[in-house]
Amino acid sequence: MKEPAISTNSALSNTFSSTASGTHDEASVRTSDTPPQPLREAVEASMQRYFEHLDGGETSDLYAMVMAEVEAPLLSSVLTYTDGNQTRAAAVLGLNRGTLRKKLKHYGLLEGDAP
């Protein structure tokens, strides 16, 4: 599996650095200087800023890069929400527990594991 080139596109990481809040029905994102907005709109705005930052430059593996930026904090947040209970976290995420453990290991989120 090819690792996404996150470090070479740090602008994407910066565009996703906001705090998620909201209900199950409509996730929202709030930064320190903006009102909450639906998660979908926040992603669209972040992607627009990312492409503007590229200023015509090339990028590759964008899908993997975005998924890595979103998936790791999602998994971490759900584990915190479930007090580290992987069975409950898997249920919350709608994943098989084995799949969750594989993802946790991939991102270095299992105790004693590194990415």
UniProtKB/TrEMBL annotation:
GO terms for biological process: regulation of DNA-templated transcription. Residues 67-107 form the DNA binding HTH domain. Residues 1-38 are annotated as: Disordered. Pfam families: HTH_8 (PF02954). Keywords: DNA-binding. Residues 1-22 have a biased composition (Polar residues). Belongs to the transcriptional regulatory Fis family. NCBIfam families: PRK00430.1. This is Putative Fis-like DNA-binding protein. It comes from Vreelandella azerica.
